[in-house]
Amino acid sequence: MSLNYELSKITNWKELCYRTAEQDVPMSGIKAGDRVMNPITQTIIFGCMGTGIGEITDANAEEWACRYILASKAGGYDPDLTLADVRAHVGLTTNVFPKVSNAEFAKRLMSLTAEELRRAERRAMAVAS
Prior knowledge:
By secondary structure, the protein is mostly helical. The protein has one domain (5-128). It contains five helices and four strands. The strands form two sheets. A two-stranded antiparallel sheet has the order 1-4. Helix 2 crosses helix 3 and helix 3 packs parallel to helix 5. The radius of gyration is 17 Å and the shape is globular. 17% of the residues are buried. The model has no long low-confidence stretch (mean pLDDT 94).
């Protein structure tokens, strides 16, 4: 299933969610001056899958950000969003639904963490060989 999103309910969405490319990006077909999606917006859209929360609201922005940080760390990479970034995107909606329960999210975190531990162990064994 495709990931669909709606940005038009975000305050100042045209300015916040898009920017002008400063230079050509040859392999992607982007030319200097093209309007492109803000990488923060793109990260939040795709982050909805990892957080299990398909929309950003005033009521859930902090929970969304917490889940994003936890999932990022469990997946072995540093989170690259702030709570302010998430709050700025209140109104964003996606087709990620229904909201994943806290119990299911915790189960996913355990699985991600175990997977990252196994990867780290394999890397350590490869270096030791």
